[in-house]
Amino acid sequence: MRSTILVLLLISLSCMGIMKPTEEFIIGVDLSMLYEIERLGGKFYENGQQKDCLEILKDKGVNWIRLRVWNDPTDEDGKPLGGGNCSHVNMTEIAKRAKPLGMKVLLDFHYSDWWADPGKQNKPKAWKDLHGEDLKDAVYEYTKDVLTYMREHDASPDMVQIGNEVNNGFLWPDGLIVGAGAGGFEGFTGLLKEAIRAVREFDPRITVMIHLAEGGNNELFRWFFDEMVNRNVDFDAIGISFYPYWHGTLEDLQENLNDLAKRYGKKIVIVETAYAWTLQDADGHSNIFGHISMAEQAGYLPTIQGQRSFLIDLAKVLRQVPNDLGVGFFYWEGAWIPVKGAGWKTNEGNPWENQALFYFNGDALPSLDVFVQILQDQPLPPPQVLQADEPSIETAPGQKPQLPEEIRVVFSNDSIKTVPVVWDLSSLEEMIYKPGEYLLKGTLNDGTELRAKVTVRGTAKADAVENYLVNPSFEAASLDPWKVEGETKAVKVVIASPPVNAHNGKYALNYWLDKPFNFKLYQTVELPNGTYKLSFWIHGGGGENHLRLIISEYGGEEKTLNITNTGWLKWNNPKIDEIKVTSGRITITIDVDANSGNWAWIDDFALLKTD
Ligand code: CA
After folding, report:
1. Which of 36, 38, 46, 165 is catalytic?
2. Which alpha helices (DSSP H) does 208-271 contain, by range?
3. DSSP 8-state code for residue 299
4. Cα separation of 450 and 502, whole Å?
């Protein structure tokens, strides 16, 4: 009797959702390079003691691994292509070690012989001439063969993703969604469905995932997954790449995930993410996350604490997804330590060792402790202000200093944020008429006090040289009234206080994009006829196809000044003198035609009348 009541109680509790069995939050690490790293002698350590990499990760709370599979990672002469040489045979060797440790396996089918991502989805060479039903058959058979092989080796995957970052389809051109010769969504989903059919027939318990990059781009995800639903594609989970220096802010990600959860009701997994624990490079092959501007953009210092804090904040985003559909994340290539030969490509180096979860020598980083912390989901005390940028502002007598409304703050968890500041202006009126140096008190919203140094220099009229450009130093915290034509995504006004990336003030203009881009930044001003000089400040990595300063519409011949960037913080000060304005106006243009990854910081334009 008593037990009947207990059973009834349990049933009713479970109906009310109180006893809902909660699946463990996924803490995964992509280990696709591990086979090659170990083959070439790479070793892993915990507190100086050598251990199996998988065991270290297991001890740190990692409960899933992810492995990519390439059909045949060799060139036409049969030579290995590198990047982990991720054949299903090699990857099975890793998966079958994970299983006895109780870890689950996500298998990432690229359906390519080598790297596949939104920019390239090449068919395996063996399928080069296959189309239509022949190609569908090949996809179906291959998928089943790989799964069968893994099961025969006690290494069955628990989740399978059909394609890698298939933003624009896979198996191009047959499965290309948009572009020349594209099979469109019809061609893409035809192939996708064959792969899914193979997985479902093989083992219906396997979770089927579809994976896109650009986690902050809700428009893209809606466009893509509406089509999946309308075309009755049978999938269980949405996989997402989110690198915070490329794919938007955590707020953008949260917005996207919340919308996807409500719109499609599928499980959501961040299957690729990472953060730098250092900007150092260990092997002479430059790192993808190699520059401080990426950390400023992403909002965390490139430190062990910054890496840890990013992961805590990422997990927080997932936990806030409605209906518990944010089920976890995978850290991409967390064990890619620098080992000679284990490069992204045969005979090339490692672009990722500063984003691994191990020191260069293979010792586990302290940031790995964050996984247990995330699994326990314990609230952390709010981070304290560690350092606030104190502005230094020059002004002329009688002119109010341009005090920033927000301050860049580094917090005790190594996150970087802009925080509103309230300035105490009670002494401003009396001081700004007398030349000298003054300190103004500012207060952040948590009560932290800071000072702005205001230097009042010169006499009221003599030094007041008028700059005819508006918002010349981007201190308005926006582009306005500058205009941008072309790839607007590449151009941003960013907090970049000196001594970092700004030449003066708090803001500077930054351009950068992870694909080729071009744009024109320009401003037209009305001004009295006369002679003027124009200048601005720039530093950047170089490599643009062209970078030009152009003046036009001023009554004289259009003039172009070619500029070459010479490195980070190597400031150049391009100038055009003797501009004879006769039309009462002038247009100033920066014209950039850049290659993928080109970047620069631009600041402090000055257009001054010389007579
Ligand atoms: Ca490197």
Report:
1. 165
2. 218-230, 250-264
3. T
4. 20
Q: How confident is the model at residue 150 (pLDDT cuts 50, 70, 90)?
A: very high
Q: Residues 36, 272, 333, 544: which is the catalytic one?
A: 272
Cα(483)–Cα(451) distance, integer angstroms: 34
Residue type, 572: N
> How far, in Å, is the centroid of ligand 1 from the Cα of 287?
5
Rg of the chain taking only CA atoms, in angstroms: 28
Helix, strand, coil percentages, rounded to 5, for the chain: 25, 30, 45
Q: How far apart are CA 507 and CA 501, in angstroms?
A: 9
In angstroms, what is the span from residue 353 Cα to ligand 1's centroid? 6
pLDDT in tens, 154-199: 999 999 999 999 999 999 999 999 998 999 999 999 999 999 999 9
What's the gap in Å between 334 CA and the centre of ligand 1? 14
Rounded Cα–Cα distance for residues 35 and 42 (Å): 10
Copy the structure tokens of residue 227.
């089509």
For residues 145 and 151, give the distance between their C-alpha atoms in angstroms, rounded to a whole number: 10
The dihedral formed by the CA atoms of 315, 321, 327 and 329, expressed in degrees to the nearest 10: -40
Q: Which residue from 589, 539, 598, 591 is spatially nearest to 566, judged by alpha carbons?
A: 539
Tell me the C-alpha distance between 238 and 268, whole Å: 5
Amino acid present at 316: K
Q: What is the pLDDT of residues 441-497, one digit of tens each?
A: 999 988 999 999 888 887 654 445 688 998 898 988 788 899 999 999 899 888 776
Closest CA relative to residue 543, chosen from 561, 567, 509: 567
In whole angstroms, give the CA distance from residue 240 to residue 253. Answer: 10
The helix (H) or strand (E) run that includes residue 540 is: strand 530-540
Decide: pTM greater than 0.85.
no
Is 485 labeled as catalytic in the residue annotation? Answer: no
Q: Which of 44, 39, 69 is nearest to 54 (CA)?
A: 44
Which two three-digit tokens encode residue 366? Answer: 């302290």
- Asked if 604 and 473 touch (Cβ cutoff 8 Å), the reply is yes
For 585, the enclosing helix (H) or strand (E) is strand 585-594
279 C-alpha vs ligand 1 centroid, how far in Å? 10
Burial class of residue 150, CB neighbours in 10 A (0-12, 13-18, 19+): buried
Q: Position of tokens 């170990």? A: 38
CA distance 303 to 256: 28
The rounded Å distance from CA 374 to ligand 1 centre is 29
> Is 165 one of the catalytic residues?
yes
Is 105 strand, coil or helix? strand
DSSP structural state of residue 381: P
